[in-house]
Structures are given as C-alpha cells and as structure tokens.
Amino acid sequence: MRFLKVLAVVALLVGVAVLGVWRGWVALPPQWNPWAPLDVNLAPNLLTRFKLMALRNDPQLCDQALATSGLRTARQADSGANTDCPLTNVLRVQGGEVALSSSFLASCPLAVAFALFERHGLQPAAAAVYGQKVTRVDHLGSFACRNMYGRENGSRSQHATASALDIAGFRLADGRTVSVLKDWSKDNADARFLRQARDGACDMFSVVLSPDYNAAHRNHFHLDVGPWWICR
Prior knowledge:
Elements: H1 2-23, H2 46-54, H3 59-66, E1 72-75, E2 90-95, E3 99-100, E4 104-107, H4 108-130, E5 134-141, E6 164-172, E7 177-179, H5 180-183, H6 189-201, E8 207-209, E9 221-224, E10 230-231
Parallel strand pairs: 3-5, 8-10
Antiparallel strand pairs: 1-2, 2-4, 5-6, 6-7, 6-9, 8-9
Helix pairs in contact: 3-4, 4-6
C-alpha cells in the first residue's frame, strides 16, 4: 500500500512537472526535476526512489549518480556469461567519508543507495541519538552466489548479483561500537539508534530486513535494491 501511494504521488509530481515545464511556468530545481540525474548530495524526497529505480537499467545514468557519491570505487571486469552468477557493471566499494570493515562488491545501484543511506539516513540517526558521527560500517559481505536463505531450490538472492549488503554494526567517533546482534533487543540509546538507522535505510533501499523480520536476520540488516519493497 505504501509503495502504491508513493507511486501515485510521484506520478502526480511528474505530471505537474511536465505541464509546468511545457508551459514555461517553472524552472525546477534538480531535486524536484524528474529528468535531472540523481545527486547524492541533495536531500532525498519523493522523487528519490523513482530516480533510484531508473538506475537499474541505465548504467550511464547510474555512473552519473555515483560520481556525486563521494565513494571510492574500482570498476570490476564483467564475469563470464557461463558462470553460475554472472556479474555486470559491478564495482568494488572501498569506502568514503565512513570507513568500511572491508571493501565489498556492489552493483552500481547498490553503491548509490549505500551512499545515500550513509549521508541522509545513517549520519542523521547518529547525530540525533549520540551527537556524533559514525566512522565505520561493519558488514558481513555483499556478493554470494546462492539462492535465498541458502536453499538448494528457489529464487536467487539479491546477493547473487551483488545487489545486497548485510550490515552487522557500526563504530562511532568516540570509539564505541554498536552491534545489531547485541544491541537490537536492548532498551537504550544503542537500540534507538539501530532502529532509526533501519528506518532511514528504508527510504533508500527496496528491501530492508532487520531482526524484527525473522531469526535469520538477528545479527544484521539486509539491504538490497531488488524489485520488491519490504521494510521490516
């Protein structure tokens, strides 16, 4: 239902924008212009998800957005088409303003969504709860050539295309760490921060799964840019 409401609002905004530009009524700012490339530096709005979706099938448009991300990345060669899980247009994300526990492989849309989350979801949550910044993201990896939940049969996981990232915790500027496994169930600032971070991720990623979803996610947030929309 939430997805349909957002689509309806986006459709309305696009319609108004088309009419306004056509009649010369308005000069839209980039963040409200449906045709302007996504800029990670600009505050997200209702068009952001529409623009993120547009990146999935347009590598050039995604590269334009990635150029505004501040991430350090290295382009990876496409894998052979005969491999079990072929990868195309994949990057190795090495970090940015926030360090990573290790680099990770990412489709271009995943890298852009991560940069948006870092800037507009994660850091605001840390500032609100702790009054300081996150300095490192601890993750469990991205690419894994497997089906969902590692089942022998069934649909491929978004991890199989490097379109998903599992985040286990965070390090703050004062050196303390916050763990999804250890701190989610508490009634304190760490638990509030984790929930705010999870909620912020829901504005950038298609699917966000936390310990509230099931036991398989008790120790991490699953974030992906696949075709479904879930925030739990």
